[in-house]
Every structure is written in C-alpha cells, then in structure tokens.
Amino acid sequence: MELAARVNQVKYDVFRWRYGLSVPKKLALSVGMAVVVGLMAQVRFPLPWSPVPITAQTFAVFIAAVLLGRWWGGASLAIYAGLGWAGVPWFSGWASGVGATGGYIIGFILAALFLGHFTDSYIRSRSFTSMLILMLAANFVLIYIPGLAWLWLWLGLTKGTYAGFIALLGMGMLPFIPGDITKAVLAAAVARGVTPKLAYNGEADKDKWARWRLP
C-alpha cells in the first residue's frame, strides 16, 4: 500500500509539474516528442500494393497526447508535420514532403488534440477502458478520414487514376486494422499506468472520480 501510494504521488507530481511548465519548456518537450514520433515512423513494414506502410508511429502519437495534453500534444504533432513537410527527413523511411501519407499526418494532429483534451479534462478518461475507446475513436475517425481522403486525391494527382472505394480501403485502411488495435491496446495500458487518478488541472469530474472504479 505504501509503495502504491508513493507511485501514485509520483505520477501526480509529474503531471502537475508538466502542466505548470513555462512555454519554452513545454515547447522543448513538444519538439522532443516530435522526434520520438519520427523515430517510431522508421519502424515500418512496406506493403507491395500500397504507398502507405505499416508503422509504429500511431503508438507514439497516442502517448504524446497523454503525456503532453491537448495543446502541447497537438503542437508536438504539428511540429512533426510542419518540419517534415518543410524537408526534415523524419517521416516513414526517412522521407520528407507531402506524400501519400499526408492526410494521416494531419489526422495525427487531430488525434493528439482530441486525446490530450480528455486526458487533461477528465480523470475518468484515464482508465484503460475509457482510454482504449478514445484511442480507437481517434484512430478510425480522426486519422483515417483525412488519411483516406488525401490518399485518394494523391493517387489521382500522381498516378492519374482515382481509386475506387474498396480499392482505397485495401490500400489505406484494412491491412492496418489489426496493428492499429494492438497499438491502441498497448498505448491505453501505458496511459493507464502513467496517468494520475487525482486532479492536477481542475478536471471537470474532480469531485466525482472517487465514486468510480478505474480499471
């Protein structure tokens, strides 16, 4: 019990410290997480029929959102996107520029804003079940919709042929679902383990959390 209390206090202290940092320090953390996302993008498995590879970077996107919160998690992914499009070679395969995956990268920013908002605003969201649901929603709505839309446009502009709906799903979504679910489960487990179950930010449910179980 004493060890658990110490661990919980450390988690609270870390998140409270992160929330109270100065803007330059938060910016430095955001750049650091952008680097982590870039490194995880290199864990890749190309698909012969698709210009979109399987990567581990979605896991890093989820963790960035949880660790940095809404605005600075979003800023971290915006830095990753902006510098990558400007020429920094840290997209998958050490690439840069707006390629076939540009829409997914936009989705990363949206997902970080979404997950970071819930992490900072609701203690209940820090349970494994809640976080898993939020991560799956972010993945399949906020990342895939802009990702598939841009992939369809990119194929038409660069290949001269716009893919049909089924073909588009085969290139940009269906092969990735098992890995996406696995990454979300792992990220939700990490989020459950590192986030405090105490209010550090005046959370909306700070007076209710004690009546809930947080699996």
What is this structure, in a nutshell?
The chain has 215 residues and is mainly alpha-helical.
Could you outline the blueprint of secondary structure elements for this entry?
Elements: H1 2-19, H2 23-40, E1 44-45, E2 54-55, H3 57-86, H4 102-121, H5 128-159, H6 165-172, H7 177-194
Antiparallel strand pairs: 1-2
Helix pairs in contact: 2-3, 3-4, 3-7, 4-5, 5-7
Return the structural class.
mainly alpha
CATH topology-level name: Arp2/3 complex 21 kDa subunit ARPC3
What fraction strand? under 5%
Order of helices and strands: HHEEHHHHH
Query: How many DSSP helices?
Result: 7
The CATH C-level class name: Mainly Alpha
Instruction: Please bin the fraction of helical residues.
Output: 55-70%
Low-confidence region ranges: none
Mean pLDDT: 91
Strand order of the largest sheet: 1-2
Q: Main sheet, how many strands, which sense, barrel?
A: 2 strands, antiparallel
CATH architecture grouping: Orthogonal Bundle
What's the number of domains? 1
Characterize the overall form: elongated
For the secondary structure, the number of strands is 2
Radius of gyration: 18 Å
Distance between the first and last residues' Cα:
18 Å
